Amino acid sequence: MNILKEKSLYIISTFFIVLIFLILVSCHSQPETQSIDRYALVNRHNISVEKFDPMTPLSVGNGNFAFTTDITGLQTFFKDYEKGIPLGTMSNRGWHSVPNSKDFERYETYLYWDVDGREVPYEDQLRTSPGAMEAANYFRSNPHRLHLGIIRLKITKSDGEEIVIDDVQNPNQKLDLWKGEIESEFEIEGEPVKVQVFVHQEKDLVSARIESPLIKSQQLSVEWLFPYGAPVHTHPGYDSSSPEKHSSNLVKSTDSSAFIRRELDSTTYYTGITWTGSAGLEKTGEHEFLLTPNANQQSFDFSCLFSSSTIDSELPDFKATKENNLKQWEEFWTTGGAIDFSECTDPRAKELERRTVLSQYLTKINGSGNLPPQETGLTFNSWFGKFHLEMIWWHSAHYYNWQRSGYVENQLSYYSDIYEQAKEFTRLQGYEGVRWPKMTGPEGFNSPSFIGSYLIWQQPHLIYLAEQQYLANPTDEVLGKYADLVFETADFMADFAVYDDSSDTYQLKPPLIPAQEHWNRETTENPPFELAYWHWGLTTAQKWKKRLNQNFDEEWEKVRTNLITPVSAENVYLGIGNAPDSYTNPENMRDHPMVLGTYGMLPLWNKVDTAIMHNTLKMVMKRWSWEHTWGWDYPMVAMCATRLNEPEIALNALLMNVQKNTYLKNGHNYQDDRLKIYLPGNGGFLKAIALMCAGWDGCDTQNPGFPKNGKWNVKWENLNSDF
């Protein structure tokens, strides 16, 4: 009897063990069976261009270097694209300054302000004298990012005339996102031409393969044109009208390679060109070089490397560059986050998915390198090619949410590089810690400005990005790497806040300009977003103290806990603390609706009332002057709406049908005739869409940014929730 009982118990227990095992296996494999088909997701958004369109050039790149092409696959008709989106060959290593012939000094741009009885200098665009204006303009425009060289097809027709854009017949160009490849096919007088282009993922190198009967007939060559630098605010980055100001010398030439030394004032760089097949390179002008393949072939390929030092090693050829791309782009697309809208029935879903995929591609090639990106990336220059450190949040804060924090690690190294420079100016102003510049280049000097020099919201960005790095990799190594930068940043923030005896609070006082930049620097007080960001930054810095087993900083704590509450009136938050006409004066409802960043970009501060913020959101949606906004404003509004459980408002904001929220066929966020692309819009979109899917700490709603109406079956994987 006991034996039978034991056998029965054994059989029953075995059954349950097997059953539990099957359940566990089923649970474990369920995500795999429901995983996103990433190859299909990415490839359904490949871009095809079938006619000349100066607003739809296509680019390949690696984050530190990018090459933008016209309809031929190279930069054959660069002049025809100048009125659209210019064709750049740009690198984080390529910078130029015109000579400081008048020996301007930075102190010539200083405007002094009385702060607590001391004179505090700010780099300003002074108009007090012609000399001061010239000094400010010089330091604003130098250094500027350099167009490294135009690479174009030079094709002649049967009558010997060089082709123009109208001679290009039956063009068919495709950007293969999965491969990082641009393939272009077209005809000249009925003869086919095919061009494939890649950019190496570790080098400032572009490689192309060209196939055409025009090679055999000696009608096709590849031409290099080297320009001078252009210190112009918004510009392609090249100056072809100053040949006497620079030199382009062929320093070495063989049967399969050539090396050119470029000198532009204090800037020197090298261009290495290698090719396969029979070809010859000759210098045809002061800054012009022509590579002509021999007539015994119908195809040839070349690689072109731009380097700040002499080129001693062999360059990767087309085959090696292609293999490099195929491997690394596949790794990019198969790791990190992914969002699939294909099972959604709301007609807006398809456009959301297109923007999501193309924004990943564009931020990768333009803004994943070792410097903070400029607002137009590596495509053409805006603000002289310099980058804005208040924009690094919009360019790069999404990488953590998409599990690609390594890109931010590269950019955070820049803060270490410029630390001493920033620290020196902070001391000059009389503050503790370190104050980070606003508009700058690789050297770290702030550019004189009557707006930018007075912004403060870039200060906590370093703490925000460092906290993301720690959450992605919570180790002592990460703490040790960034702790000093975090603490020095917090020291400045605490010292910048002003104690008010009458209210026993710490406040943010003039001179300052908030993120909504139209407010007066002389009178602005207590902008709500900056107050909330000050609290969040100092709170997070104290967390770092605790993680390192250090005592809390008493000064930080006094400021953090006693910051003034954001000011509200008639149950809405004001744009700044001393502007009761925030929503009655039309001038105050333009530029960034930054009040919504207070709870959207940031988690909830206990001094922010969600009911008042809810009313503020509805007020902004109703009254704001949307034609006077910027591309990242729509994601910011969407993040606020998502946190306030207003998913329909979030969607309406993210896809608002206004010019500044236009996303072109190539995925770029169009602003206006001056600023035809705007990468903070792409980065902000990725930040918002991740929040709408993965939520934030403490959020228990699945896909909180999407209505629960049965139309939004949004699938996603490998996204990190927000703070």
Verbal overview:
There is one protein chain. With 723 residues, the chain is an alpha+beta fold. It is built from 17 helices and 30 strands. The chain has a nine-stranded antiparallel β-sheet with strand order 1-10-11-12-13-20-17-16-15. Strands 9-14-19-18 form a four-stranded antiparallel β-sheet. A hairpin with a 4-residue loop joins strand 10 and strand 11. Helix 6 packs across helix 17, helix 11 packs across helix 12 and helix 15 runs antiparallel to helix 16. The chain is globular.
Brief digest:
The protein is α+β, with helices and mostly antiparallel strands. It contains 17 helices and 30 strands. Helix 9 packs antiparallel against helix 10 (461-472), helix 11 packs across helix 13 and helix 15 packs parallel to helix 17.
